[in-house]
Amino acid sequence: MLIPTALVAFLVTSCSDTPAKPVATPSPTYVIPPQTARPDEKVVNAAPVVDGQMRFRVLSFQDGMPSMFGSHAEWNAKGQYARVRVLIESTDRTNQKFDAKQQLLVAADGRTFHIDNFAQAIKRQPDELPVGSFVRMEFDLWYDVPKDARITKIRFFADPPLGAIGPSKGVDVTLR
User: Fold this and answer.
1) Under the phi-then-psi rule, with left for phi > 0, alpha for psi from -120 to 50, and beta for the rest, what region is 5?
2) Mean pLDDT for all residues in the chain
3) Which CATH class is domain 42-174?
4) Nearest Cα to Cα of residue 151 among 129, 172, 120
5) Residues 103, 108, 110: CA angle, nearest 5 degrees
6) For the segment 73-125, what is each residue's pLDDT rounded down to a tens digit?
7) Going by fewer Cβ within 10 Å, which terminus of the chain is more open, N or C?
8) Helices (H), the chain
9) How open is the CA angle 96-122-128, to the nearest 5 degrees?
10) In this predicted model, which residue has the larger pLDDT, 10 or 126?
């Protein structure tokens, strides 16, 4: 009697359909409320980009500003001020160094421009900072560019990952 029961059990299990695939459950996501853009700011909907172990996302862009106000000063641009609101995130298990002085604005004619140290100071924005493991930060990068410059992109640079040969060539995000 044991043999027929074992045989039936074998036949039932071996003839069954392929086992059902497990259903994927979505990963939970953070609920972050939207923020209203500042007056005259152009919201940029570009996909995030990665350079080294840092992810960069452009949130907004504004240019053509003849002057700026800070907490302790008003200052006129030599040309025009341009401001890029960025969200950066370390994608590694170690700290990353963010250096605002490496980030370049790119004009339609190919000219590149570094941040304006004085504008960064007036607006109390970071120059260089450590970004902790998987930490996100949001802030502005300020540039003083010639009046005739038509800014089209920003080029982001992060420290190259461990083992990389040579410095990063950067990664571009279109602003217009």
Assistant:
1) alpha
2) 89
3) mainly beta
4) 172
5) 60
6) 789 999 999 999 999 999 999 899 999 999 999 999 999 999 999 999 999 99
7) N
8) 2-14, 117-122
9) 10
10) 126
Backbone angles phi, psi at 11, to 5 degrees: -65, -40
Element (H, E) at 133: none
CA dihedral 73, 76, 77, 82 (to 10 degrees): 60
Residue 4 is predicted with a pLDDT of 62
- At 86, list the tokens: 């960025």
Reported residue count of the chain is 176
CA–CA gap between residue 118 and residue 126 (Å, rounded):
11
Q: Which two tokens stand for residue 124?
A: 């109390």
SS (H, E, C) 91-108: CCCCCEEEEHHHCEEEEC
Within 10 A of 17 (CB to CB), how many other CB atoms are there?
5
Residue with tokens 């003083």: 144
Residue 32 pLDDT:
86
Integer-rounded Cα Rg, in Å, for the chain is 26
